[in-house]
Each structure stands twice: as structure tokens, then as C-alpha cells.
Design goal:
Radius of gyration: 17 Å
Distance between the termini: 40 Å
Shape: globular
Helix content: over 70%
Strand content: under 5%
Number of helices: 11
Structural class: mainly alpha
Order of helices and strands: HHHHHHHHHHH
Number of strands: 0
Length: 191
Amino acid sequence: MSAPMQDSAVIEASLIEPESFAELFERHAAVLHRYVVRRLGPDQAEDVVAETFTRAFEKRHKYALDRQDALPWLYGITTNIIGTHRRAEIRGYRALARTGEDPVAVAFDERVVARVSASETRRPLAAALAKLGKGERDVLLLISWGDLTYEETAQALNVPIGTVRSRLSRARRKIAHALGGSNPTNVIEEA
């Protein structure tokens, strides 16, 4: 049994056989869907993921084939699409800050819902996320919820790694301040 092709090889093959691009969807759609659900809620997630793969397919000829893993590239496309839904994302955070009820929690398994429900920090966290600038929020959530490294986040957002580090530092400082000095990294990963 041969090892599966790297993402870059799948993209390269899709330039000749477009149907092979479906392999990329099978590999990465679920993780991108979970990420979008956390950012925008379940109602828009399917459309955003579909649009991500449509754009990726259209731009596959521009993909840097020396990057074997396409997930950071796909997160970048997804983040740009989320940007068009930014107002909905901020409204969701503000509603959570007001009510304490997480409309996204229904999309996760019971263990995660219980952990989020038990958290006393979700209201101030949601309010703080709503107040972050676009760049800060994107970096923070790609690293915390997308599990991307600094380097992958820089690739996803097409910014220098120093920009990722400074945005993350500012975002963590702002979140920590909003949470009364709590470690924002632990709180965001649990949310």
C-alpha cells in the first residue's frame, strides 16, 4: 500500500486531472468546517467551506508547490471569506457577551458543550473577541482554534511571521486585560 500523496502533489495532479482536487476536499473540509462553525456559527459554515474550495480550485495553478501541506493556504482562503461575514461574527460575540448563551455550542459534542457552559469567562471573552481588530482576531483564532503554527498562520494570512507574533501578543494582552489577568491562551482554546 503506497503512502497518500502530499497535498502539493494532489494540487499538481489536479492541473491535469481536475477531479483529483476532490482529494483535498476529503482531507481538509471537516477541520475547516469546525473552524468556521466556531467563528460564524453552523448556519454559514457549509457555504463558507464550499466557497473556500471553489476559490482554491480556481487558484490552484498559483499554489506554491514547494509547500507540501495545503491546510494553511486553505485557512487563508477561509479567513478571507470569513472577512466578508465579519459583522455576523462580531454580532455573535456580542450576543454571547450579553446573554452568556453560546449559539454555536450546539454544533459541538456534549463534552465540549459542558466545558464551555461551565466556563465563567465566556461572556467577557466573547466581548473581548468582538473588540479585537480583524488582524488580531484572525491570528489569535487561527492559532488557537485552527491549531496553526506561527509560520502556517503567516502563510495563511500572507503576512510576515513578525506580524503574526506582534498581532498575537497584542491580542493576548487585550484578552488577558478583559479577563482580569487570566491566561487568554487556555480560555480561548477551551471556548
